[in-house]
Write a structure and sequence with these properties.
The protein has 446 residues and is an alpha+beta fold. Helices cover 29% and strands 28% of the residues. The strands form 5 sheets. Strands 6, 7, 8, 9, 10 and 11 form a 6-stranded antiparallel beta sheet that branches. Strands 13-14-15-18-19-22 form a 6-stranded mixed beta sheet, sandwiched between helices. Strands 4, 16, 17, 20 and 21 form a 5-stranded antiparallel beta sheet that branches. A hairpin with a 7-residue loop joins β16 and β17. α10 packs across α11. The longest helix has 19 residues. The chain is globular. The chain starts with a strand and ends with a helix.
């Protein structure tokens, strides 16, 4: 089999001369059949590349410099691999570094590409996009008057960024809508609070994770300590991962570890030895074994799916909602010269039981779609109880009756709060109901 130990290709045009020199056995001809030989670059394809480069330099309607052509070739090479591999120029590389800290400029949406359009994976909580009504699954077809078709993802993202206070009109295709929607979003500095906590009801806590940042694990521990105290312990906890686009891998490990005493959390497999990693839980469940419900939906991606998959496999939580996004690949950022970097998919995520997250997502244990619930008008107006009958006997506990008489609005108020949660967030309402049931079962078993 002939080998080209040294090959120089001179590409001459009227404007410039490009010399490509290759040393070592990099090339092979088409009759290479020996599988024991190291893989070599195909000579014919390299010739084709050089021919096309030459034609563009000579015949394209406008003059294009060598640097632009070569960088475009690099972008195209990565674009065809998968949606998450990319060549990061200085601005994009800087943005990626800033995003992991939780403060950056823009609209506040996690995006990808689908059929040439920008697809909204999820709007981030409390950002201009979310407040303006942008939803997960929206396809952005125009940015102001600029059609998105034909742009790369990085080019589209550049158009979405701008000075805080400036406006951007998004033209959106949304499932269920007959015509495109136009939504005006005012750009702002995006300061993402990755962990939020509150009480859903007495003894039932709620923790919302909006994104996985470097400090998310520590912030989660603080949130649990505020909700779950020795003086007022929780009976159940909801962890809301809906529309959480993911983020830092170590943060996902830290969050999972907070609720597990032992065992594998996640592992990765790739072609390179250093891409095969295993992460295990350390001793200590900060929630002390109380029932947990994890909410997910199609906007829950990457690190969110790691957490949901780990807690599901270890049977530490009930996963509720709809199937997650299915982004189960690992991207490694490789710094290059001139403040550039290569973001390359190098491995896949697997849950402790060996399930691949990629393109399949996490299936909920209990599927609950998002829904709008309205209370039936005057539902209690025709209901009668013993206490409504004239001359009814007392229950023998005068203190209890007096308290009920003084606080006669309490049942109606509780009903109103319950109805309000069902109407505003049906999935969360169902999660709370499940937690109450699980805590009762747990108490009976003790």
């Amino acid at each position: 089999m002939p080998k080209l130990r040294h090959l120089s290709i001179w590409l001459a045009t009227a404007a410039t001369t490009l010399t490509l020199t290759f040393s070592s056995p990099l090339f092979a001809t088409e009759d290479s059949t020996n599988s024991d030989q190291p893989k070599l670059l195909p000579l014919n394809e390299v010739r084709t590349f050089v021919d096309i480069f030459d034609h563009i330099k000579k015949a394209y309607v406008e003059e294009v410099n060598d640097k632009t052509l070569l960088e475009n070739a690099i972008k195209g090479m990565l674009h065809e691999l998968d949606p998450h591999s990319a060549y990061l120029e200085p601005t994009a590389y800087k943005d990626l570094q800033i995003n992991t800290t939780g403060e950056f400029g823009g609209l506040g949406i996690e995006v990808g590409m689908e059929d040439g359009f920008v697809k909204v994976i999820t709007p981030i909580d409390d950002t201009p996009a979310q407040k303006a009504g942008v939803k997960a699954g929206d396809l952005i077809i125009k940015l102001d008057n600029e059609p998105v078709k034909g742009l790369t993802l990085s080019e589209a993202v550049d158009l979405m960024r701008g000075k805080p206070g400036s406006k951007l009109v998004l033209t959106i295709l949304r499932e269920g809508e007959e015509k495109p929607l136009t939504i005006t979003v005012t750009r702002d500095i995006i300061q993402v609070t990755s962990v939020k906590q509150r009480l859903l009801a007495p003894e039932y806590g709620y923790i919302r994770l909006t994104q996985f940042q470097i400090q998310t694990g520590e912030n989660l521990k603080e949130a649990i300590k505020k909700l779950h105290t020795p003086e007022q312990p929780l009976k159940g906890l909801v962890i809301d991962l809906r529309n959480n686009p993911g983020g830092v891998l170590q943060a996902a490990v830290d969050v999972s570890d907070a609720f597990l005493n032992e065992g594998l959390i996640v592992y990765t497999e790739g072609r390179l030895p250093n891409s095969e990693l295993r992460f295990n839980a350390s001793s200590g469940d900060l929630a002390d074994g109380i029932p947990i419900v994890v909410l997910i939906n199609s906007g829950s991606a990457s690190a969110s799916e790691i957490v949901a998959g780990a807690l599901q496999d270890h049977k530490r939580a009930v996963i509720m909602g709809t199937t997650s996004f299915g982004k189960g690949s690992v991207q490694t950022v490789l710094p290059l010269h001139n403040e550039r970097a290569l973001k390359l998919t190098t491995a896949r995520y697997f849950t402790p039981s060996g399930r691949s997250i990629q393109a399949s997502g996490i299936q909920p244990d209990i599927e609950v779609d998002s829904a709008v619930i309205t209370a039936k008008a005057n539902a209690n107006s025709t209901l009668y109880r013993e206490a409504d009958l004239r001359g009814h006997l007392s229950n023998g506990n005068s203190t209890e009756e007096k308290q009920q008489g003084e606080d006669s609005s309490a049942p109606g108020q509780a009903l109103s709060e319950s109805t309000s949660l069902a109407a505003s967030d049906y999935q969360l309402f169902q999660a709370l109901n499940l937690l109450k049931g699980l805590s009762i079962v747990q108490a009976v078993g003790q």
